[in-house]
Amino acid sequence: MSIDAGLRLAVGTFTRITSGEVSTSPAAARSALLLAPLAVVPLAALAGIVGAAVEIGLPPLVAAGLVLGLLAHGSRGMHLDGLADTVDGLGAGWDRERALAVMRSGDVGPMGVVALVVVLLVQAASVAHLLAHGWRGALVVAALVVGSRATCARMCTTGTTAAPGSSLGRVFVGTVTPAASWLLLAAVALVVVLAALPLAASTSDLPTVVAGAALAVLVASQLAAVLRERAARTFGGVGGDVLGAGVEVALTASLVVMTVAS
Q1: In 56, 59, 232, 248, which residue has its Cα 20 to 30 A from 83's Cα atom?
Q2: pTM of the model
Q3: Where would you find the membrane-spanning parts of this chain (predicted)?
Q4: Residue 235 counted as domain residue
């Protein structure tokens, strides 16, 4: 596994940080998917720092809006764009050619707009709730951002087919073994649980918060897998837009679970 080539590809794909010349070989693609959570650590850290500004009086909802704006900027809005395009394509009907054409049109339809509004509203409310706990909540938010990127490895396991005509899907889809994707999931679950410990220690129900942190990663991964299967039936495979949608679905789901747990 080429760690250097994979990390450069992951940074260039999942963030707006310049990563130089990249390789799109299967080995590099596999490494990139497994290293995606690591590649977004700088972005997640910045989001955590912005969120921790609640400690100096910034209202949690304002801080949440700034955090989401930073995440969108740091990822070039790629995941949000993928969410809108995927929802529009899924809602275009059962004809595969029409669904693919709608998804790739570049225009955002009414279903895509509603999806963006709902997802961003839920994310903002959840992040604001967590940030009401101060820096402890900001640490959890940062960890969930890192964890949400592990979703792509789960969506690109061997046996999964790339969507017809998808250049990004052709590079990534089918390159990760299921065992590797589950090991990555376990690793990010551990990171989220550790990040939630200060928050758990400050509450009166430590087991609930810790269990919620582990459950947040599992629920996010499972929902992304459901999205993958739906996309495979509708589009004939998984493409870049579906991967982006998977990240947003995973982040939203994990934030909601942690909101309930805290």
Answers
A1: 59
A2: 0.90
A3: 32-50, 113-132, 168-197, 209-227
A4: yes
State the Cα–Cα distance between residues 155 and 102, nearest whole angstrom. Answer: 22
Q: Is residue 22 part of a domain?
A: no
Rounded Cα distance between 73 and 212, Å, is 29
- 3-class DSSP state for residue 238? strand
Q: What is the largest CA-CA distance in the chain?
A: 54
Residues 6 or more apart whose Cβ sits within 8 Å of residue 81: 241, 244
Q: How far is it, in rounded angstroms, from Cα 15 to Cα 43? A: 8
- What type of residue is 4? D
215 versus 166: the higher-pLDDT residue is: 215
Domain membership flag for residue 13: no
| Packed helices 135-148 and 26-39: angle between N→C axes, nearest 10 degrees | 170
Joined together, the tokens standing for residue 196 give 């939630």
- The SS3 call for residue 157 is strand
What domain range includes position 88?
Answer: 41-261
CA–CA distance, 239 with 241 (Å, rounded to integer):
6
- Number of structural domains the chain divides into: 1
Distance CA 80, CA 89 (A): 14
121 CB neighbour count, 10 Å cutoff: 11
Is 59 inside any structural domain? yes
